[in-house]
Every structure is written in structure tokens, then in C-alpha cells.
Protein: Oligopeptide ABC transporter
Organism: Klebsiella pneumoniae subsp. pneumoniae
Amino acid sequence: MSRLQQGLKTRQTHFALALKVALLGGVVAFSSAVFAEGLLKEGITPATDASQIPASAKLRTDTVVAGISEPQGIFNPYFFVNGWDENVTNVIFSRLIDWDSQGKLVPGLAESWTVSPDNKVYTIKLRPGLTFSDGSPLTAEDVAFTLTVLLDPKYDGDTDITLANIAGGTDYKAGKADSVSGLKVIDPLTLQVTTTQPGATTLAKIGGPVLSKAWYGKGYQRGNLDYLRSLHGKPLGNGPYVYDKYIPGQEIRFHANSHFYRGTPPTPRFIYRVTNPSTNFQLFQTGETDYDAFTSRPDDIEQLKMLGFANINLYGSSDYSQVEFNVHRPALQDKRVRQALIYRPG
């Protein structure tokens, strides 16, 4: 998980709120063990002296700058390979079905949905008047196209849509069908998704970000995603902000999406500034960034508090690590080899 994800996991609802904050804000994430040992307490520590806000930040009235580790430049919600690119795509794209703060599924681009009595057929209704950031209409055809891409045999991203068990999905993936039988566009605002069996996570799986068929699907044929991949650096979405430019090693620039279905964001411009653990505190202190994540020692919290202008959200990190082995390699089929690679003396 990325450093920024630890402290600033940018869901669109969370992000929109962050953009309305007038004072600077910092986020500090720690191992949960720190809290269990009683060294720190989770919660928000508000700024104590807004007059200490750096002059450079006060003058920046139409732009919010957030720190981020350097992304790879794969700005597609279904193809990114690290959390920093995901942070960027969360600004550009909206989900079909979202989550609220309690983890409950709630309407996003979809206005509503119904599920058949046998829990196998999902009928999704889009909000009327949806568009992508270029003003082109967003319809059920775009949703069907997105799900079809995820079932393409050449798709190699991290979203495993096969877990949704869409009817005809395995046949399409295997080249036995020219289309996915379980995807049916009823009208421009209605998509019917038929599955082969009920699934507790089906709605979440099919309710992800929506790709523009007109933009990403030009000349699309099953088994050929080359054109779509060529657009990783030219994303077209439907989220709160529109991608402008990526300057590697420096920043990613955005402007407010006037076509955003929840209304144009109040802050005209947004910038992700590339920072790292050796620079992020200084940039925050001088007002060059408005928002950043800090994974640090408890002692460093005092530095943030002494600034006076920092709103600090302190909470335990839920990070985890794992090691995966490719057991198709003969050497790794031996349990003793796997143990030797991951075990170490206490």
C-alpha cells in the first residue's frame, strides 16, 4: 500500500470534503500496535492558530495541493499497479456503485438497482443526464463495454470480474463467444446483468468506475487491448476533476469537472505534488502542500502540533504484507524452499 494511501485513501466523497477545508491539514498513520500500547490516541487534533498559515498557502485561493509519492503514469482504474496511480484515478473517475462511510453500497453513477428473487439478475438504472468530462453522454453501453473489457482474454489488471460470475463471461474469455450473453443493454439508462449464481460481492464487482466506449473502445475487438493501453496517459473520466498534465517527478495537475454529476467542485484546480519522506514535512511547513500523509515516529507529531495551523488526523494503519510464490516453478514446489525464503531466526 502506498504512503499516501496509508494516510489519504481518496474516495471521491472523502476527497470532495477535503477540498473544502480552508486550513491546512495533515494525516499521520501509525501501526495499530502504537495505539494498543497506549503511546498515542486516535482522533483529530484541530489547528490551534490559523494565523500561522504560511503566506504562500493563503495566496493560493483557487488550488489545493496534496502530497503523493511518484506515480507510474498508468491512469486507468483497471490497469494501475500501485496505490499512487490509484490515488490519481480516484480523482478522475466515479464508481457506478459507491460505498458510504460505514462500508454500505450506495448509489453512484447508478441511481438505483434491483435484484431478482433468485439473486442472479441485477437491473441497474443510471442517473439521467450523465456525461464524461468532455461532455459526451455516459450510457449503459459504456457500462457494458467496461465489463466486457474486464472479461477480455488479454485483460491482465487486478480486477477479477470473473468473481461476479456473469453469464457467458467464461465463454467470451475463452474465445467461444463474440459477446457476453449476461450483459444486456435494455435502454440508454438501463443495464441488465445476469449471473450464473448468487454472490455477496457481485454488486461491488460490477459497480466499479465506468470507461467511455467512444474514447477507450475505438476499434475494440476481443483479444486486442493495445489501443486502450495507449491511453493510460490520456485518461477520460467522469469524476470531480479532469486530468490536465503529468510532469514526472514533480506533479499531476487537474481542473474541476463542470460535468460532474454531483456538481462542479468548489475548488477550481487541484494538484498532486510528488513528495517523499525526506521532503514532505518541509513542503507542508512552508505551505507548498496543503495536505499530505506522514508515517512517522510519535515524537514527530509534536513537530506538526507546533506548526499551529495543522489539522492532524491520527489513526492506526491497517496495512498488511504478504509473500506469494509461483508454484509452477519447480524449485518453489518444494515446501522447504518456500520456508527457507520467508522464515528467519527470531
